[in-house]
Amino acid sequence: MILILSQSSMEPTTEEVMDWLEALGESCVRLNGEDVDGGAALRFRVEDDTADLAFEVGGAELPLSSAEAVWFRRWLHERRAEMASSLLAEPAADTLRLDFELRRHLTLESRKLSDFVFSRLAGLPWLSHPHRASLNKLDTLTRAARAGFLTPATLVTTEREALRRFCAAHGTVITKPAGEVDMFLDGERSHFLFTTALDLAAVDALPERFAPSLFQEKVDKDYELRIFYLAGECHAMAIFSQTDPQTQTDFRHYNRERPNRMVPYRLSPPTEERIHRLMADLGLETGSLDLLQGRDGREVFLEINPVGQFGMVSKPCNYGLEKKVAQLLMRKAADGRRA
Amino acid sequence: MGDERKTLFERLSPEARQLAPVSYRFLHASPTRVATIMRLVDSRPYRAGGYVCVSFRKPISKCCRQDDDL
Amino acid sequence: MTTSEPGAASANREPVFTLFACCIPVQGARRSVVCDLQRQSFQFIPNGLYEILSEHAGKTVAEIKAIYGHEYDEEIDEYFAFLLHHEFGFWSSDPERFPALDLAWETPERITNAILDVDEGSRHDYGAILRQLDDLGCKALEVRCFHRCSLRELRAILEAARHGRLRSIDLLAGHGPELTPDALEGLAREHPRISRIVVHSAPERRQMPPLRTGVTIEYRTEVIDSPRCCGQIHPGYFVVDFETFAEGQKHNTCLNRKLSVDARGEIKNCPSMTRSFGNVREVSLHSALAQRDFAALWSINKDQIAICRDCEFRYVCTDCRAYLRDAADLYSKPSKCTYDPYTAEWQPPADVPAGIHTKGAPE
C-alpha cells in the first residue's frame, strides 16, 4: 500500500497517479496536510512501549500502518494560521503584534505535528522527502556550477552602486525572490512575485540601499527547458515563449490567448550527465529542473524544484509520467517488502 | 477603496518598504483565478478531500443538431 | 550524427523549418489540415504543403525550392510565412533536438465515458449503476432524459453520484416548467460535477452565459426523444486536442471505452446499437464488459473506414458506428456525415471557416 502525502485541492496529477496505482493493482491512501492540521480526526497514543497514530477521514480510519512506501507530493500545514481576518474576536490597532505571534506559534505547532507524522514513517522507502523539499537557490546554483553547468551571473546585494556595476557588466538584469516564488492573497486579487527585468530607469529609482535582493543577468533565450527527473531518467520539454512579449521574462505569465509552445526535447548526453551529477550531489531522486537555451548558444542552469508539478511536462509531451511515478512507487513498496 | 490603484509596494509603510526586497516593487496583481476553472469534487473517503475536475472534452453523444454558423 | 552541446556545432548550420510537435499535418483527399493540438484549432493547407512538411521535413528552404525546380519559389515562401504566422513551427539549427510527439494513448480507466438513457418508463437504480461505473473508473457521464423531467428526478440522479469518482456529468433533459434558468443554476452549484445542461423540446432557444465555474446551460427547441437523434457529424463536434487525436490513431473515438445503459436498462456500447450485453438489473456492468464482444468495435478507427480514411478531419472527428451509410457494412462512413473529402464539400454546404477554434475546451 502506498501512502501519499498531499494537499486536498488542485491536485489532478496526484489523482491520476492514484488511478494508475489502482489499475496496476496497488492500493493507496492519501493524507492531506489539512487532515493533520485538524481537518481529520486525529488520535495519537503512547502507552507503555507502544505508540499508535491514527487518522479518521470521512468515517474511515486511514490504515497508516499498512503503508509500504511514501510519496511526498505536497503539503499544506498552515491551515489554521491562514485565516484572512484576525485571530482575535476583537482586534484593535495594538493587537496586530499579538495576532502575528499567535499565527506564528500555530504555524510552528502544525509543523511540529507534521514532522512527527513524517518521523513515524521514516523506516519506509520515500519518493521525495519533506526535509529536502525546499532547496536554497544560491546553494543550488553553486552546486550546478560544480556539476559543470553554466549559470547566470548572480548578485545578492543591498547596494544600488553594486547593482549599477553589475548592470554595466552584464546588460539587462532581472530580480526575483531568493527563496520561493510566492503569491499574496489580497481580497479578490492576488499579487505574484514573478521574475522581473530591470531597466536603468528602474535601477536609478531605487534607494541607495535596500533589503538584500537577488539579481541575475538576463539571458536572452531561444527557449526554456523544463526537465522532470525521475530515478535516473530525464524527461525534457522545450518552452517557446519568445513570440509573446508578455512571457518573455517569466513563462509563468501565462497567456491564455496564445499559450506558449511546449514540445518534447532531446537533451544532449553531456547535459544529461550534468543533471545526474547535480541530482546525486543534492541527494534527490526526483525533481524539476529549469534550464535556458540562450540565443548565444549557451545552455544555462536556472533552478530546481524538488517537489514540483510534473503534469505540465507529462501532458504536452505525452511522457506518461503519472504512470511512471505509479510504477516507481510500486517498485519501492516491493523493495520495502523484501527488505 | 483608494487602494485599488496603488501597487502592493506603494501600500507598504516606509519601514516595511525598507524590509522588502527589490522584487516587491514589481508585484503583479491579477484577479484570483481559483474559482473560475476549478471545481472541487468529493472523492472516496480514503482519498480524503476533493480534487480538481476538468471536464471531459470529447462529446459523449452527438444528439443536438449543430448550427451551421459557427 | 554526433550529438554535442546544443548550439555549439550547429551555429554554422542553416536553419530548417521545424514544426512544433503539437502541430500535426493530416492529409485528406482534396486538401489537408494542420491540427494544433495545443491551441485546439486547425488550419487548412494545400496538399502541396503537406508534401513539403512530410517528405521534405528537415530540408532547408533552398533545398526544397530546388527540389521543385524553382517553379514554386514564391508559393514556398508563402507557405512558410503562413506556418510562421500561425506559430506552427520555427527555424532551428538543431532539428534533431525536437522529436515528434509520441502518439501512444493510455489511460488507467477501463471505461472512460458512459451514457445513461432515461425515459418515462425507466426504473433505474441510479445508486447501483453509478457505483458500478465508479468501480470501472468512469470519468464522465452523460444522462439523456428523453421525456419531460422534474427537478426531483435530476436531483436523484445527481445525489447518487455525490460520493463517486465521476469528474464530469452532462445532463440532457426534456423541458418542463420546473427547469428554469435559476433552478438549473442552483443545481449546477449544488453539484459541482455538472459540466453542461441542455434542455431540449424547449419553447424557445436560449443560451445562458457560462457560470463562473465554466458550466454551460442551454435551451434548444429541437425534440430529442430517442437515441435515434444521435450520431451527428459536424465540425461543431470536432475535438482538436491531444487526447482525442492520440486515441483516434488506433481506436474509435466514439465507442472506445464507452459503456451505455439504455432506457430499458440494457447494457450496450451505445444506446443506438441493437446488441445488448444483458440488463443492468440482472447483469453487472463488470460482467457485461468482460464479454469478449463488448470491446469489438473499440478498435475500428477512421483509417479503417471507407471514405473517412481519405478525410482530413479523420483524427478530430468523433465518428459514429451506429448509424451507417450502409447498415450491412460495419466499415462504411456515418450516415449523418454530409462531407465529401473528394470534393471538400459539405452537402448541403456548411459554413466551415478556414480555421476552426473548437468550443468548450477548458484550460
Task: Summarize this structure briefly.
The complex is a heterotrimer of chains A (339), B (70) and C (363). With 70 residues, chain B is α+β, with helices and mostly antiparallel strands.
Write structural notes for this entry:
- The complex is a heterotrimer of chains A (339), B (70) and C (363).
- Chain A is built from 9 helices and 18 strands.
- Chain A has helices at residues 12-23, 33-39, 96-120, 137-146, 160-170, 200-204, 269-282, 311-317, 321-338, and strands at residues 2-6, 28-32, 41-47, 50-57, 60-61, 69-72, 126-127, 154-159, 173-176, 183-186, 189-192, 196-198, 209-217, 221-230, 233-240, 261-265, 286-294, 299-305.
- The radius of gyration of chain A is 22 Å and the shape is globular.
- In chain A, 32% of the residues lie in helices and 30% in strands.
- In chain A, the strands form 5 sheets. Chain A has a 5-stranded antiparallel beta sheet. Chain A has a 4-stranded parallel beta sheet with strand order 2-1-6-7. In chain A, strands 8-13-9-12 form a 4-stranded antiparallel beta sheet.
- Chain A has 3 domains: 2-129 and 327-338, no CATH class; 134-152 and 219-306, D-amino Acid Aminotransferase, Chain A, domain 1, CATH 3.30.470.20; 153-214, no CATH class.
- With 339 residues, chain A is α+β, with helices and mostly antiparallel strands.
- With 70 residues, chain B is α+β, with helices and mostly antiparallel strands.
- Chain B has helices at residues 8-11, 14-19, 34-37; strands at residues 28-31, 40-41, 51-52.
- In chain B, strands 2-3 form a two-stranded antiparallel sheet.
- Chain C is built from 8 helices and 16 strands.
- Chain C has helices at 47-55, 61-67, 73-85, 126-135, 151-160, 181-190, 242-250, 285-290; strands spanning 16-19, 23-27, 32-36, 41-45, 89-92, 113-118, 140-148, 168-174, 194-200, 206-207, 216-219, 258-261, 267-268, 339-340, 345-346, 355-357.
- Chain C has an 8-stranded mixed beta sheet with strand order 10-11-9-8-7-6-12-13. In chain C, strands 2-3-4-16 form a 4-stranded antiparallel beta sheet. A two-stranded antiparallel ribbon of chain C has the order 1-5.
- The longest helix of chain C is centred in the N-terminal third of the chain and has 13 residues, at 73-85.
- The interface between B and C is large, with 29 and 57 residues.
